[in-house]
Write a structure and sequence with these properties.
The structure holds 2 protein chains of 2 kinds. Chain A is about 35% helix and about 30% strand. By secondary structure, chain A is of the alpha+beta class. Chain A has a single domain, classed as Alpha-Beta Plaits. In chain A, α3 links the parallel β5 and β6. The longest helix of chain A has 18 residues. By secondary structure, chain B is of the alpha+beta class. Classes of the chains: A alpha+beta, B alpha+beta. Chains A and B meet through β5, α3 and β6 of A and β1, β2, α5 and α6 of B.
Chain lengths: ~120, ~190
């Protein structure tokens, strides 16, 4: 049974959420992802993707929401960079057309540098 | 709601501790059927026989219409209300209002009040002599932006209007980017290091 479950490929939604999570964690502007908010978890794969919400968009594709604990940087630049990273990662994995939008929710700011 | 939540946690802890102690006492006393540590001994220690007589008389008066019945009814309704409030405190979902900073086709940028407050405090802390004491953010109910109330400490040598101007200038990039309306108040005080 376990082997059967492991062989089931992750859905596009879960794959996109995983890619978005990795892209966010690779950014030096992100301290970590926050899995405490109610929607900050994508389930459906072998393991839940913590800190990322993924829902189907009305016009097709998926809307990704990153719940970010950020370092003190410009929040606009942070959001822009994260969107770009997620978009590039999705395209590299053949899911570029499935990505509808990337929302960035900053739940906390940690660190001692100055924002903006 | 915060008060209810804290109260429900305290009451839950106290009730569970009392329940655990009572359960342990009954369990220990159940080991023997008679003697010093037994259920009859425990009933004697707790005065359950006397309590049964007293409660029996009280229940008799409850069955008749009168002030005792009314008071008991009111106490029952009060207990139900308290229980409902504690349940609300324990079960009400924790929600945190987000300040929406940007909304576009590419996606939305939002931040919790805590995150934005820390960002604002960090900016003000960068101003020489100023120390952010309290930051409060009130996101707009609809649309983008928020009202930012900030209290800061300044040295006595720095006039209030100059301190406010400096803090305002420090917050300008944040305020302009995210449609924040800063309201700054300063008072003299030593900076905590």
């Amino acid at each position: 049974m376990t082997q059967e479950l492991e062989q089931v490929p992750a859905s596009e939604r879960v794959t996109l959420a995983g890619l978005a999570r990795q892209a966010a964690l690779d950014s030096h502007e992100v301290a970590s992802l926050d899995s405490r908010p109610p929607m900050a978890r994508t389930v459906g794969g072998r393991e839940p993707v913590e800190g990322v919400g993924a829902i189907a968009a009305p016009g097709g594709g998926y809307e990704i929401t990153l719940y970010v604990i950020a370092r003190p940087v410009s929040l606009q630049r942070l959001a822009s960079n994260l969107r770009e990273r997620v978009r590039v990662s999705a395209q590299a994995n053949g899911l570029g057309d499935k990505l509808y939008a990337v929302n960035v929710m900053v739940t906390d700011v940690v660190g001692g540098e100055r924002p903006l | 709601m915060l008060l209810l939540r804290a109260l429900s946690r305290l009451v839950t802890f106290a009730l569970l501790a009392a329940l655990a102690l009572a359960g342990a006492a009954v369990a220990v006393c159940s080991l023997a059927s008679e003697g010093t540590v037994s259920l009859p001994w425990l009933a004697d220690q707790l005065g359950l026989h006397d309590a049964r007589d007293e409660v029996g008389a009280f229940l008799d008066t409850l069955e008749e219409p009168g002030s005792v019945a009314l008071r008991s009814g009111a106490a029952g309704v009060g207990a139900v209300c308290v229980g409902l409030l504690l349940l609300a405190g324990a079960l009400w979902p924790r929600t945190q209002r987000l300040a929406l900073l940007e909304r576009g086709e590419a996606g939305t940028l939002g931040a919790t009040r805590r995150a934005l407050g820390r960002a604002a405090a960090s900016l003000v802390e960068g101003v020489r002599g100023l120390s952010a004491k309290r930051v409060r953010l009130r996101p707009r109910r609809r649309g983008v932006g928020a009202r930012l109330e900030l209290r800061a400490l300044r040295p006595e040598t720095l006039p209030a209007d100059e301190a406010t101007r400096r803090a305002d200038r420090a917050l300008l990039p944040l305020a302009q980017s995210f449609e924040l309306q800063p309201r700054i108040r300063t008072k003299t005080g030593s900076r905590v290091i």
